Every structure is written in structure tokens, then in C-alpha cells.
């Protein structure tokens, strides 16, 4: 009888152990399956914080383009960033923040997994500061757009070791200053757009590592002072836009580091004085826009530093007269029918103005 009771107890215990083990394995299997199926583009549980719409390639792991929306607050250490590893072939990524969302950082942990990323856009975030190496030293990234993110501060090495980056847009933020060593090891950068910010200070040498930059847009800011050292390193720059700033004067050799510059836009500033040698060294400049400033005098030697100009705009200044001596350095260019000279709200075609040498020597009253 006792043996039978012991046997029954043993059988019950064995049954309970088997049942417990079975439940444990089921839980583990379920967890393993969930982990195996977790994917940036298909995971259902991530909708509360971030949801990605993926296109291109063959799902679930060959997506080439993703548009991710942030709906609520998400932290730097959120597990969602590890899921970027499930889509290693993404080459285009947009991160957009909904009005109720909160996004205050560059997702460096996620970007580290995207070895083929070529285009990155982040918009409508609240990123106060771009920290050093925020873009994970990506060697594949070519275009980076960070417009409308309320960015205020760019730390040193904020944009560093992005060896294939060609276009960088920082427009419509609140950046107040560009410091030295913000842009480091960007050997292919050609276009830098920083218009519509709060820029008032550009440290000397801030662009010194952008040797191959072709286009720089700094318009619609609060820049008031420019020096020769502002543009150190920009030896290949062809287009510079400084319109809609607070510039009052241009000193000698201000642009002398810009040896191949072709277009210079200074319209809608407060320029009252331009030193005779302010444009010295701009031997390739073809378009100079100085409209909507406060110039009262155009000195005789001013245009001597820009002998190749074919487009000159001086409209809406305080100029009363412009003499032949003022434009003599570029007189032959203005005879060309393709050139034009704007003054006093009218367009004067050079072929008509300078048909005769005697006519060219007259004084034009605005």
C-alpha cells in the first residue's frame, strides 16, 4: 500500500515537472520567435513611439527607403534604435516628428547600423544641440537635411568624418554661432546651407576644413561683421549668399580668400561703406549684387578688384551719381550685350549705354 502511494506521488511530481518545463520552453520559444520577428518595418509594438513606413527591396530585410514618424517621446536608449539593424540596406531615411511627439537628439545608436545610408532627413524635432560625432562617422552618407529642428548649438566635431557627404542643410533653425572645428573631415562637401537662422557670429577659421565647398548660403541671419579670416579655407567656393543680414561695412581684402568666387550676393544689408580693396582678389567674379543697401558713394577704385563682372546690381541705395571712373575697370565687360547693370530700379543694357566712349564718360543721375 505504501509503495502504491509513493508511486502515485512520484507520478504526480513528474507530471508537474514536465508541465512546468513545457511552459518554460513555450515562453522561451515565444520570446525567441518575437525576437526573431522583430523588425523596424513590421514590428507592431513600436507604434506608440515610432512607426516606419518602408518601401523598396524585398521585405522583410531588404528595404531601401524608410519614413519614420515619431508620435510620442522617445529616449536615446530606447530599444527601437537597435531595430535599425534589421534593415541594413536602407539608403534613404526620413525621421519626421508629429506635433505631439518629442524628439531632442540625433539617433546615433540607430545610424550606426545603416552602413548603406546615403540620404538622411530629420524634420520638426526639438534638437537643441548637435553633439560631437552625432552621425556615427558615416562613410556612406551623401545628403544630410536638418531643416526646422530648432537647433541652437553646434558642438565641435558635430559633423565629422562624413567622408562622402556632399550636401548639408541646416536651414530654418536657431543656430547663433558657427565655431571652429564644427566641420571636420568632410572632404567632399560641396554645398552648405545655413539660411534662416540666428547667426551673428562666425568664428575665424570656422570653414577652414571645407576646401572643396562650392556653394555657401548664409542669408537671412544677423551677421554684421566679416573679415578675411571668416572665409579661410574656401579656396574653391563659387557662390556666396550673404543677403538679408546686418552688414554695415566691408573692409579691405574681406573676400580675398575666395579666389574663384563667381557670384556674391550682398543685397538687403545695411552697407554704408565699402573699402577700395574690399573685393580685391575676386578675379573670377561675374555677378555682384549690392541692391537695397545704404551706399552713398561708389569709389573709383572699388571695381578694380573684380575685372570680370558682367552683372552689377546697385538698385535701391543712396547713390546720387555714378561717374565713368567708378565703372571704368569693367567698362569693356558692360559693352557686352549679355551683360547688364541695374541702378535706380531700371535695367540699363550696356550695349546701349556704352555705344560711344563719349557717352560712357557722362554722369548718370539716379
Automatic annotation (TrEMBL):
Residues 1-21 form the signal peptide. GO terms for cellular component: plasma membrane. The keyword Repeat applies. It comes from the Eukaryota. Keywords: Leucine-rich repeat, Repeat, Signal. This is Connectin.
